[in-house]
Known about the structure:
The protein is mainly α. The chain has 18 helices and no strands.
Amino acid sequence: MDKKGFWQSGHKPTLFSAFLYFDMSFMVWVLIGPLSVIIMKDYPMDPVQKANLVALPVLGGSILRLVFGFLTDYIGPKRTGQLGLLVTTIPLVWGWQFVDSLNDMYIVALLLGVAGASFAAALPLASQWYPKQHQGLAMGIAGAGNSGTVFSTLFANRLAQHYGSWEVVFGLALIPILTVFVLFTIFAKNSPNRPAPKKLSHYAKILSQRDAWLFCILYSVTFGGFVGMSNYLTIFFNAQYDLSAVRAADFTTLCVIAGSFFRPVGGFLSDRIGGVRMLALLYGGACVMFASVSSLPPLAMVIVLLFIGMMCLGAGNGAVFQLVPQRFGNEIGIVTGIVGAAGGLGGYALPLILGSLYQSTGSYTPGFLIIGGIALACLVMLLVVQNSWKRTWSGQGGTAKIDNLGQAS
């Protein structure tokens, strides 16, 4: 086993490039979330239509992650990332210059999914450079690019207010995307240890394995919860606490920071105490936090609860992807695409759950209770499958040994 420390192994320019690509792509992917409160002034929407608008980019990303996962295996993660950055400019130009109706806005929202698909190229690009003992931290650092959400929630509504137009924000977003394209092209390199391309039959083989589906479920809750909340919380704060568009987005930013910057912490701690143990703690924490939010406490308290809840989800993203390379190290490109797609589907479902139940009941209480219950179900599932993982992983090509929610090594 390679005994080098993390900073002595791998390829740092590629790790930085993967982070930067994911970061700016994620910023664009969730751009409509904070802007939705301003957009609905031009195109009035009921709660379900608002939920659909912020959920469509996540749906697009979920579908395209499978495509990007396939491309990552065949043309390499670097070329896939370059392609993703260039195609991302299409919905940005459309949103800037050509939106005339809510239906146009829906199309732009769906096309923004190409930015969300960056996950399926950025994580393999980084992880393929690192040995298994450093996978959690490497993928956590690359995956911390979901911090790009902070730029959208903090600046999108301010820019729209300053320029008197939400459309111009799409145009301004072209600047960082094209800048990152240049930097990514210069600094990113494919790993010499990149696995050989997989055939379509390999996707079917992966999907025939129970563990792949379990990871999909786990990630649909951690990542899906994070991105779904990131997109929807501005609407929640605006509707429930009657905050302005800018102030609602500011409070969303606080919650998003927790989820973004604790992703690498989740990967790092999972390397130390084990991904299964870490996930169990995080799902338990998320359950308590979101169940408490369902009581709709005063604003100060709900921000604290959402901050901790988003922290649990963000760290959970890192913990899931500390386990994935250990179980599916030779199929990381395929599995990243599949599991990432499942995460996107979770992010698509969450706004619809909150928006639909709010429209039908007039309260956010049922929606947050359901989200807390889903986190609890994941905790129970982990407790059930941990012994099975301990018995079978080494026999299926994984290197992990799991001791009752203990360290995976």
